[in-house]
Specification:
alpha/beta; 5-stranded parallel beta sheet
Length: about 260
């Protein structure tokens, strides 16, 4: 049950259109629903502003389907990460409106349209090989209600491509940089702007990249200030962090 549904429920009680007992019955599974193998967190939307996100890797198709079935009862928007195309075909049987983004490996089910923020997130990628992670970040943030722009394939091997797009950097409120190899993109971007930069190292690179470890260490050791670093290939985590920053900016704008 999302915030809007709970507000409607409480309004009905207030207006004597629904008994307290009936409202309690609808709220009985609000904290979480125990499925035996999983406890679906129905309370997360109230705490964090967005429902629980399903991480599909390591789960069976039947487990994901059961979790989604329960979440659909709450009429929430649903985001499932690291999902295969085969899993998506299974999900379509219970959620015909589900949309699959193959490159990002995301499944989205939109039950309620979320208005986009005025504040802007820019997702920047070093190369085309980083786009799977970059798209995971961009699409996740968009699902969270964030206005997203993309600036792809502007890595330091051809830095004129980045410098030729400084307007994009300057107009953004938060920037996510996604890069593999040596991971220098985050340092370059952070040295050019006065806003938070969230760095995502990817596992893209040759042998001594060590599956993204080289890029991770470069980003952690950056001499440019204002960089936060998430784990290797964690586009989702970067997007969620960026979203919390932007939503605080939106809150301050309304209160100001």
């Amino acid at each position: 049950m999302n915030k809007h549904a709970i507000q409607q429920l409480l309004t009905k009680v207030k207006n004597n259109e629904l008994s307290v007992e009936a409202a309690l019955n609808e709220l009985k599974d609000l904290p979480f629903k125990d499925l035996g193998f999983a406890k679906v967190d129905n309370h997360r939307d109230l705490r964090n502003g967005f429902p629980e996100v399903i991480y599909c890797a390591g789960k069976t198709a039947s487990e994901v389907e059961a979790i989604m079935t329960e979440m659909l009862k709450q009429d929430n928007n649903i985001l499932a990460t690291r999902a295969s195309k085969e899993l998506y075909q299974q999900v379509k049987k219970i959620a015909p409106t589900a949309v699959y983004y193959e490159r990002a490996r995301l499944i989205m089910i939109e039950k309620e349209v979320i208005a986009k923020t005025k504040s802007k997130l820019l997702v920047v990628s070093g190369g085309t090989s980083d786009l799977a992670v970059a798209e995971e970040a961009a699409l996740t943030a968009s699902a969270l209600g964030i206005k997203v722009e993309r600036l792809y394939d502007v890595g330091v091997a051809g830095i004129h491509r980045l410098l030729g797009n400084l307007d994009y950097l300057n107009e953004a409120n938060v920037i996510i940089t996604v890069a593999g190899m040596e991971g220098a993109l985050a340092s370059v971007v952070a040295g050019l702007v006065d806003k938070p930069v969230i760095a995502v190292p990817t596992s893209v690179g040759y042998g001594s990249n060590f599956g993204g470890l080289a890029a991770l260490l470069t980003m952690l050791n950056s001499c440019a200030s204002g960089i936060g670093v998430v784990n290797i290939d964690n586009g989702f985590g970067a997007a969620y962090l960026a979203s919390t920053i932007i939503l605080q900016l939106e809150k301050a704008r309304k209160e100001g």
